[in-house]
Amino acid sequence: MNENSPQAGINTKKESLDSYLETHYIHRSNWLRAAVLGANDGILSTASLAIGVAAASDTREPLILATLAGLVAGALSMAAGEFVSVSSQTDIEKADIEREKQELKEMPELELERLAAIYESRGLKKETALTVAKELTEHDVLGAHVRDELGINEINSVNPLQAALASGAAFTVGGVLPFLVTLFFPLAHVEYEIYGITILSLILLGVVSAKTGGSNMLKPIIRITFWGTVAMGLSALTGYLFHINLG
Question: Domain boundaries in the chain?
Answer without folding.
Answer: 29-241
